[in-house]
Design a protein that fits this description.
The protein is of the alpha/beta class. The protein has a single domain, classed as Rossmann fold. Helices cover 42% and strands 24% of the residues. The protein has helices at residues 3-9, 15-21, 27-37, 55-62, 74-83, 118-128, 147-159, 171-178, 196-204, 207-210, 214-231, and strands at residues 45-49, 66-70, 89-90, 104-110, 129-142, 184-195, 236-249. The longest helix has 18 residues, at 214-231. The radius of gyration is 18 Å and the shape is globular. The mean pLDDT is 91.
Length: 251
């Protein structure tokens, strides 16, 4: 099994942690998505691919989209169904979408496109999009300009050889351009309050931690929790993010 596949397969076992502690998305993201795609989400048919536990799926539905969650992991899909039983879920990945040609208005990847093979997933998205539809990709990226996050990153890099595994996620935009698509983009800045314990739970859900054996994982998480509490004795944090959205209209 490749390292990529091992990391991709790691999420099912930590789906509960993923749902509990991963960041959500600000309302401004969906305003920007409507602006860049040129259509309202209300009434749109949407495939949220790599939906995970449905963090973005639920927000799309709240904006009035008729959204189907597309998720290959049984563990992640089980949590999604438990948390949001009214949302339809299809077991599949972006490289092979089991949907008719020209059947949806929007294909979204929230924090997920880097798990696909763009040579397959981009043509598949274009196939299922109707004329006037768009493919949208976005990523929450921690803003390491914050001094405490920079120190956290240094500790993780020292403890985890695979920590920089996500270094190339934004290459998704380059793949859209290479495919001959027009790419519209915007970057939002936002932040969320959380506790040290929530950050450790979030860290537990990251693939570079989830792939570790429990005996290796536990001391790393304990050491990081201690380091964070030494800096934030009250256990309260503010975590800043850069959120970059790419929208590619179907030609």
């Amino acid at each position: 099994m490749s390292d990529l596949q091992a990391h991709a397969n790691s999420f099912g076992a930590v789906a509960a942690e993923y749902n509990a502690a991963r960041p959500s998305y600000p309302a401004e993201l969906f305003d920007a998505l409507e602006r860049l795609s040129g259509r309202p989400l209300n009434g749109a048919d949407v495939l949220d691919v790599g939906a995970g536990t449905g963090i973005a799926t639920r927000l799309l539905a709240e904006r009035g989209a008729r959204v189907v969650a597309v998720e290959p992991s049984d563990g992640m899909a089980a949590v999604l169904r438990d948390v949001s039983p009214g949302l339809p879920v299809v077991k599949a990945g972006g490289d092979e979408l089991p949907f008719h040609d020209a059947s949806v208005d929007l294909v979204t990847y929230a924090q997920a496109f880097h798990w696909t093979d763009p040579d397959r997933s981009i043509p598949e998205a274009l196939r299922v999009l109707r004329p006037g539809g768009s493919l949208a990709l976005w990523w929450n990226v921690k803003d390491y300009k914050a001094s405490w996050l920079a120190a956290h990153q240094e500790r993780m890099a020292a403890a985890l050889p695979g920590y920089h595994y996500y270094g190339g996620v934004i290459a998704g935009a380059e793949k859209l351009t290479e495919a001959g698509l027009e790419v519209r983009e915007t970057t939002l800045h936002w932040e969320r309050p959380l506790t040290v314990d929530q950050l450790i739970t979030d860290l537990t859900s990251r693939s570079y931690v989830a792939v570790l054996d429990p005996e290796r994982r536990a001391p790393i998480l304990a050491a990081e929790r201690a380091a964070l509490l030494a800096e934030f004795p009250d256990g309260q944090l503010i975590e800043p993010y850069r959120l970059t959205l790419y929208v590619a209209p179907r030609p």
